[in-house]
Amino acid sequence: MTSSRTPSFKKLRTTTAPPAVPTKESSEERYWKKFQYPVTIKEHAAINCVDFSRAEPHDFAVTSATRVQIYSSTTNQVKKTVSRFKESVYSAKFRQDGQLMVAGGEEGIVKVFNMNSRAILRQCEGHTKAIRQTCFTSCGHKILSTADDRTLRSWDLSTGEALQEFTGHDDYVRALAVSPGSSDVCVTGSYDHTVKLWDMRCSAGTPSITMNHGAPVEAVLLFPSASVCVSAGHNQICVWDILSGGRQLFSFSNHQKTVTCLAFDSGARRLMSGGVDRQLKIYDVTDYSVIHGLSYSSPILSIGLSPSESHLVVGMSDGSLSIKRRPAKTSSTTGEESERLPQAPPKVGTKRFFNRGKGKPEEGDVIVNPSRPMYHLKAYEVQLKKFHYVDALDAAMKTNNCDVVSGMFQELIHRDGLSTSLAGRNQRSLVPVMKFLVHYIGHPRYQALLIDVANVVLDMYGGVCGESRRVDQQLNALRSRVEAELNMQRRMCSVLGMLDMLFSMATTTTTTTVTKTTSTSTKH
Questions:
Q1: How far apart are CA 323 and CA 38, in angstroms?
Q2: Residue 494 Cα to chain centre, angstroms
Q3: Quick one: CA torsion of 365, 371, 372, 373, rounded to 10 degrees?
Q4: Bridge-partner residues for 220, per DSSP?
């Protein structure tokens, strides 16, 4: 064995499968993987809605069956239970201050609760079918609700009276999103495949903009600026430009089944979607590429991310509630953005600027002229480096490793040195090459390579047959091996033909039997 410091020489590549190269994790993947310590709670029915309070400590409401449970974000335990319902509840949302909660369900009545006493403050009646979505407007003085009676209604919180009724949809209205900046603008999605933008200031009660999603709409979202809308239906997610009159900006499909819910992170920089395929996808809103994904045990019906991004809650169709929390930061750095995005470059003249490069390389650093490692070359690699092709092939043969020998043949062909390595051999040096060809020429992994090598050997030494008994024996063995391989291929082709005939006969028999059965039934 010879050792040498030779960074410019590439070691011989063998034909063995290379080891799996670990993929480099991005900062986004590391951020979302920090949601750990999963807690799974089993409810009695499907979890239709998850909503976080905007007020600290950001408790969250979970809607399931005929009750709404308030979970503590500190202990992940049930803090309060609101069970003033006779039938199933489909939606429960907090007001911005966290003091009130509005809920609606199968009863068709919008109910407003005081979260301190859990008392019913208002009951708004008017819908004729099940209520699917409820929410407070941004001002906190109005309530919006959609139902299976194809209507959108607004209610006065102080009196409980209906203010307006909007009847532009032709099917169930299952999605609702209110503008964060205006209490008079909202978006609805319906099973009539449309997404409609409503302005409460219009007395006509007609939608301002109508967008065709192309499938029953399950969820809608409005960006904080209210200039862009996102809708989900079937396995498709569409992004609409409101300011351009409802022009479609993006349309993408990363789910295999229906998308049931959508959610933003605290800054509306990331979009989350959950579907019946049990997958939760996270997208970058700049180009809507998938930056991370999570898999769950059952179809996902609802998603909730706390305003502080410390808890990720997912509700599923089998009643399972998954709660994942991100551990508190131990460093003095504040803000989630510092954990997610790369650190800004140091300003010129600061201490951090003059100390840059003194520590360990950070992510994104370019290492110039790294230290070159010392590694050892094999005997055949040393000869190959010196362009001694004959000695390199002989050294590879002595390893008795078929991967090394086949790799050497490939390298010699690449260097156009195969003829040089095989030429001018005597009986002693040619026989090992012939034995290798006889032994491995029928192997599927090396067959194509060794056929080319065998052709070169026969062209060189075919004219000296009969001069060496050992070489003649190897040539006869190679001929027998090739003939055996050809005979096996012929037999395999015959077997394949017989199988095709049997399958064809079986199909014909089955068709005849079905035809006879149909005829008999017709006669009777």
A1: 5
A2: 46
A3: -110
A4: 231
Strand partners, 331: none
- Three-state DSSP at 293 gives strand
- Residue with token string 């047959």: 465
Divide the 524 residues of the chain into consecutive groups of 10 and give the mean pLDDT of each group.
54 64 71 81 89 90 91 88 90 92 92 90 91 91 92 90 89 91 90 92 82 94 91 93 90 92 90 93 91 91 91 92 79 47 69 73 63 71 88 88 87 88 86 88 84 87 81 86 86 86 78 59 54
Helices (H), 328-423: 337-340, 351-354, 379-385, 389-398, 402-414, 418-422
Dihedral in degrees, nearest 10, Cα atoms 432, 438, 441, 443: -100
Q: Which residue, among 294, 274, 270, has the nearest Cα to 219 in the 3D structure?
A: 274
Q: How far apart are the first and last CA of the chain?
A: 89
| Other CB atoms within 10 A of residue 320 CB | 18
Closest by Cα among 117, 124, 126, 72 to 103: 124
503 in helix, strand or coil?
A: helix
Q: Per DSSP, which regions of 161-207 are E strands?
A: 162-166, 173-178, 185-190, 194-199
Tokens representing 279?
A: 């997958």
Task: Check if the beta carbon of residue 240 is closer than 8 Å to that of residue 249.
Answer: yes
